[in-house]
Each structure stands twice: as structure tokens, then as C-alpha cells.
Amino acid sequence: MLRKIMSLITPTYEDQGLFKRPLVEIQTELLPQIQLSKRGDMHVRGFIGGGQEITVVFAGRRTAQAAIVHNQLGWLQAQASKKGVAFDEESEHFRLKVLVNGSWRPKFTRDEMGWESHTHHLIAARWIVNDPRAKSSAHGTAPEIVPQNQ
Known about the structure:
By secondary structure, the chain is α+β, with helices and mostly antiparallel strands. Helices cover 19% and strands 41% of the residues. The chain contains three helices and six strands, in the order αβββααβββ. It has helices at residues 11-18, 62-65, 67-82; strands at residues 23-36, 42-48, 52-58, 96-110, 116-129, 137-140. Strand 1 and strand 2 form a beta hairpin. The mean pLDDT is 86.
């Protein structure tokens, strides 16, 4: 599948591809476990209420704005290391509280045996970082489209 040339991608075009479902607001706790996709999108492992594991995706033009999340997670990990706390995903030393306004996207993966598993990624549009060192700060950009209910 051919992709559109980056210089021709407008914010509206990008948002139409990212936000195909209604926006929701969800309190997350992110871990310092970050992966970058081939497109440069930042995927962060985290949890929502009840301990359900999710992946929050900062995609497209919002990836650069998510540097604050990357920096805060690195700081949390460094502070825990200074205190001699070993990595434990259950520990609050390794969790960054981020209120995310975004859209759920289904993710389908297939294992070596051919079994499919279904998960969901939370595609972040806007977010508020609860910085443990300072006041909260808002980041991201509201989508330039209104998602259709599905």
C-alpha cells in the first residue's frame, strides 16, 4: 500500500486516519516502557482502572509534543534507580499519571500458531501530565475532525 508523501499530509487528513471512533477521556498510569514505530509514533505501556493493561499511542504531529511524557518517564526511572528501587511494574515509583483524551483503536495480532488476539490502543489527541515535580500541564492538539459514532 502506497503512503501519501509526508509533505502532503495535512492535520485534517492525519486526524481522519487516527480518530475513527468517538473521543473518550481516561486516566492512565504509564510505565517507562516506550517503543517507537517505523513511522516514528511513540507507544507507551500503561494501565487504566482495575489494572487493565493498555498501550497509549502518541502519533503523527503529536509525537513531538509527547516529549514531555518521554522525559517524565525517564526522570521517574532515574529517581527510582537513585533510591535503589528495582524495576517493578506494580510500583508507583515507575508510573506517570496522565489524563488522556483520545480514541480507542482495535489492534489485531496473530501468534506463531495462527491464533488471533484482540487488544486496543488508546490514540492520544490531548493529555494532561501530572508532573510529580511541578503542576500539571496540558499537551496535544484537539482533532480537526469530529469522529463518527460506530
